[in-house]
Amino acid sequence: MSALVIAEHDHGTLKGATLNTVTAALQCGGEVHVLIAGHNAGGAAQAAAAIKGVTKVLHADAASLAEQLAENVAAQVLTIAKEYSHLLFPATAHGKNVAPRVAAKLDVGQISDVIKVDAADTFERPIYAGNAIATVQSSDAIKVMTVRTTGFDAAAATGGSAAVQSIVAVADSGTSSFVGAEIAKNDRPELTAAKIIVSGGRGLASSEKFHEVLEPLADKLGAALGASRAAVDAGYAPNDWQVGQTGKIVAPQLYIACGISGAIQHLAGMKDSKVIVCINKDPEAPIFSVADYGLEADLFVAVPELVKALS
Question: Which of 154, 155, 262, 306 could be 287's S-S partner, Cβ–Cβ 3.0 to 4.6 Å?
Answer without folding.
Answer: 262
